[in-house]
Amino acid sequence: MSTIFQKIIGREIPADIIHEDEVCISIMDIEPQAPFHALIIPKKLIARVSLADETDQQILGHLLLTARKVAQDHNLEQGFRIIINNGNDGGETVPHLHVHLLGGRKLSWPPG
Hints:
Layout: H1 4-9, E1 17-20, E2 24-28, E3 36-42, H2 57-73, E4 80-83, E5 99-103
Antiparallel strand pairs: 1-2, 2-3, 3-5, 4-5
């Protein structure tokens, strides 16, 4: 069974795509937690960061560099936050690794 992100990558369901390259896709979150809230999703299915292995090292680095590029492209020069949820207690709701990029306002700490 495909995850919602695999369906978005495969263009089976629509999404607001703001970046795409050979490794990942970035979309706007449908339930934003900040004025700007995007997801950076690898095209390769990695269920969660705790299940990634050494062969995924380049993909993981690429996701962070893509988050930086998306932040620059959307004028988040005042700052932004990058979040990766892992497991139920970590807030993971889709079993497909993805990076949350939040910005557009001052973000409080601790986050939750």
